[in-house]
């Protein structure tokens, strides 16, 4: 639209100025037309470039012989074995570390809870969803970890996202290990805090960053894991504690893979190093691994837990953990306390696996004593081929490729469980050694 004075003025323009003006108007119109044309990929999911890229990646994996290896139904309980397509295979694909999923006492507890409370608590705990099982579980976790209290959320991933995002904000800094789980990273992004990834397990680099930047921020969170789920290695926890104390920061340890698996009694990475539980501000853990359930927790001070219970969005605006899930986690914890030898057996099996793999010259990465054992392959397609070849020989082990791990760091990842037998492990490593050479 033109206003009056503009069109009056135009009548007196020279022919050259008029041509220039016309050209500018046409250019503006063309731009507007282009603007009006919204590309289809902006409003059609089937044309999303990211989706098309995914389809391409799936097609190249499927072309390697076994069809689509994702979402394959497992037809029974995954412990040392699994059943797929009616075939029993030795299983390394699930983190049922202590064999609690499928344990008769754990299943019986879940069934009793269903009979008494039904399958859902049907409300946020803050309003009407609280059951006696909830406090029982939170007390049991706090006692086990050694903290004043704990809070249980419905998902492990959600626990990290909502807790981190809720406790930290724009004036704060979060430093997280570069190999941190996606849930930690998502929590960092959502918080709006300044975020920096420090090199994996490098507390000296962390110290340096804090030395340079600590005074620019109000609160600082350092987020690490007890056992890293892709490499199976552990942090030097006492060094991290010393650094965080010196710089007056909070320390969060994600124990998804270390609770139940580390320390003589399975109390986690804190027990492994003999640190005081109060030296870590947020002990985070999941119920989906050693505890045969579904959900996550934060264990820490009374003040922290009380604050989260009244204000953390993923807790307040979400349903409480279901009765069977709460009951199975309580029962798994009780079983673990009664039978700590499960942890030792798990480590014996893992040591056997690692030592046999080393004898075969296989690359198990940086963690010889871990219960998560990667076999580093490098090339993505090769890792898929290896996984397929093992599947044909009765072994279920998933591959890990980019973006779950860095480019050229593809691997097979073996989750050990205390229910694996020595014979299963010997057969697996023997077969793996042969198959690696064939695929080469
Ligand atoms: C380190 C870590 N944190 C958090 C989670 C999320 O836990 P969940 O699967 O119980 O939601 C996982 C999942 O594997 C994990 O490995």
From TrEMBL:
Q: Per its record, how is this protein called by name?
A: Aminotransferase class I/II-fold pyridoxal phosphate-dependent enzyme
The entry lists its GO molecular-function terms as: pyridoxal phosphate binding; transaminase activity
Aminotransferase class I/classII large domain: which residues? 88-432
High-level lineage: Bacteria, Bacillati, Cyanobacteriota, Cyanophyceae, Oscillatoriophycideae
- Work out whether the entry's keyword set contains Endoplasmic reticulum: no
InterPro entries named in the record: Aminotrans_II_pyridoxalP_BS, Aminotransferase_I/II_large, AON_synthase_class-II, PyrdxlP-dep_Trfase, PyrdxlP-dep_Trfase_major, PyrdxlP-dep_Trfase_small
Alphabetical list of SUPFAM superfamilies matching this protein: PLP-dependent transferases (SSF53383)
Q: What keywords were assigned to this record?
A: Aminotransferase, Pyridoxal phosphate, Transferase
**Family of the protein in this entry:** Belongs to the class-II pyridoxal-phosphate-dependent aminotransferase family.
């Amino acid at each position: 639209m033109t206003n009056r004075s503009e069109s009056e003025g135009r009548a007196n323009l020279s022919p050259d100025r008029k041509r220039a003006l016309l050209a500018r108007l046409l250019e503006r119109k063309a731009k507007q037309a282009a603007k009006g044309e919204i590309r289809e990929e902006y409003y059609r999911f089937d044309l999303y470039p990211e989706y098309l890229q995914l389809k391409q990646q799936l097609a190249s994996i499927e072309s390697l012989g076994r069809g689509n290896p994702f979402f394959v139904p497992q037809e029974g309980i995954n412990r040392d074995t699994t059943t797929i397509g009616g075939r029993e295979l030795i299983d390394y694909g699930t983190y049922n570390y202590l064999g609690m999923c499928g344990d008769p006492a754990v299943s019986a507890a879940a069934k009793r809870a269903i009979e008494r409370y039904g399958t859902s608590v049907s409300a946020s705990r803050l309003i009407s969803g609280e059951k006696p099982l909830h406090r029982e579980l939170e007390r049991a976790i706090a006692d086990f970890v050694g903290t004043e209290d704990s809070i249980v959320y419905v998902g492990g991933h959600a626990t990290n996202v909502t807790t981190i995002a809720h406790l930290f904000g724009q004036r704060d800094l979060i430093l997280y290990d570069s190999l941190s789980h996606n849930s930690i990273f998502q929590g960092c992004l959502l918080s709006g805090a300044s975020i920096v990834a420090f090199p994996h397990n490098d507390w000296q680099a962390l110290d340096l960053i804090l030395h340079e930047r600590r005074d620019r921020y109000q609160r600082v969170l350092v987020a690490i894991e007890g056992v890293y789920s892709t490499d199976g290695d552990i942090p030097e926890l006492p060094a991290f504690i010393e650094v965080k104390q010196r710089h007056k920061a909070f320390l969060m340890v994600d124990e998804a893979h270390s609770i139940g698996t580390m320390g003589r009694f399975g109390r986690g990475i804190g027990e492994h190093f003999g640190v005081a539980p109060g030296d870590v501000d947020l002990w985070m853990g999941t119920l989906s691994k050693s505890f045969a359930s579904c959900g996550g927790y934060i264990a820490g001070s009374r003040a922290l837990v009380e604050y989260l219970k009244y204000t953390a969005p993923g807790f307040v605006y979400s349903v409480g953990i279901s009765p069977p899930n709460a009951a199975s986690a309580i029962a798994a914890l009780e079983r673990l306390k009664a039978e700590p030898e499960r942890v030792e057996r798990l480590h014996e099996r893992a040591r056997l696996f690692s030592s046999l793999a080393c004898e075969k010259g296989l690359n198990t990465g940086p963690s010889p004593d871990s219960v998560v054992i990667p076999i580093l392959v490098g090339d993505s397609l090769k890792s898929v081929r290896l996984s397929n070849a093992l599947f044909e020989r009765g072994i279920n082990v998933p591959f890990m490729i980019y973006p779950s791990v860095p480019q050229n760091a593809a691997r097979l990842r073996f989750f050990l469980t205390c229910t694996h037998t020595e014979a299963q492990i010997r057969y697996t490593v023997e077969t793996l050694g042969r198959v690696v050479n064939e695929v080469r």
